[in-house]
Amino acid sequence: QKEVEQNSGPLSVPEGAIASLNCTYSDRGSQSFFWYRQYSGKSPELIMFIYSNGDKEDGRFTAQLNKASQYVSLLIRDSQPSDSATYLCAVRNTPLVFGKGTRLSVIA
Amino acid sequence: GAVVSQHPSWVICKSGTSVKIECRSLDFQATTMFWYRQFPKQSLMLMATSNEGSKATYEQGVEKDKFLINHASLTLSTLTVTSAHPEDSSFYICSATPLESHEQYFGPGTRLTVT
């Protein structure tokens, strides 16, 4: 069974710090990886996707992929209180396989 | 780009009635759409995969006769909750993948309350 594992948190970081969210997956053949942000009571919003080993940066967000170790991470620089949400890691199969999410709390 | 809409955003219905939820991809075509359900403070649960022009594929434990899915076009899928019960009250979310793309975009969700 294909699985995606995330630490449920909550992960608390002070405003301005770097938040680091991690995810591991079981299917070594997975090729595409996604990070979604979900605010309470709202639907998930795609914030990053990564297909190749290494880092991918978009504004304050950096996704990191290591296929050999089967993990993908998301770094949020200069964390803001508005970043407080649940972050879902997803791995491409059809459909996507989601982790249970990590709740991030950025403390002002 | 890649906007998915849902209608209605919330609905209240009485036990025993049916409710239809629409999911539309506004600026792209999608051969495949997905329907999820999420209870408070719980994870997304995939209910079914909807393929344009063919029958939906339901996840184990999801009653296909209760949750009717129709994917009539490349931009529209509907979920009908039949003979609704209070335990069907939940947040229903659809998502869609553009043609030749790997990304999956979510609609804003429909909050269903069955009284």
Question: What this model shows, in words?
Answer:
The complex is a heterodimer of chains A (108) and B (115). Chain A is globular, with a radius of gyration of 13 Å. Chain A contains no helices and eleven strands. In chain A, the strands form two sheets. In chain A, strands 2, 4, 5, 9, 10 and 11 form a six-stranded mixed sheet that branches. A five-stranded antiparallel sheet of chain A has the order 1-3-8-7-6, with no helix packed on it. By secondary structure, chain A is an all-beta fold. Chain B is mostly beta strands and 115 residues long. Chains A and B meet through strand 5 of A and strand 10 of B.
Compact summary:
By secondary structure, chain A is an all-beta fold. Chain A has strands spanning 4-6, 11-14, 19-25, 33-38, 45-50, 54-58, 61-66, 71-76, 85-91, 97-98, 102-107.
Can you write the helix and strand succession of chain A as a string? EEEEEEEEEEE
Structure classification of chain A: mainly beta
Order of SSEs of chain B: EEEEEEEEEEE
Largest interface: A-B, 21 and 16 residues
Number of helices of chain A: 0
Helical stretch tally of chain B: 0
CA radius of gyration of chain A is 13 Å
Largest sheet of chain A: 6 strands, mixed
Cα distance, first to last residue of chain A?
A: 40 Å
pLDDT averaged residue by residue of chain B: 94
* Rg measurement of chain B, Å: 13 Å
Profile the largest sheet of chain B: 7 strands, mixed
Query: Number of DSSP strands of chain B?
Result: 11
Span between termini of chain B: 37 Å
The share of residues in extended strands of chain B comes to: over 45%
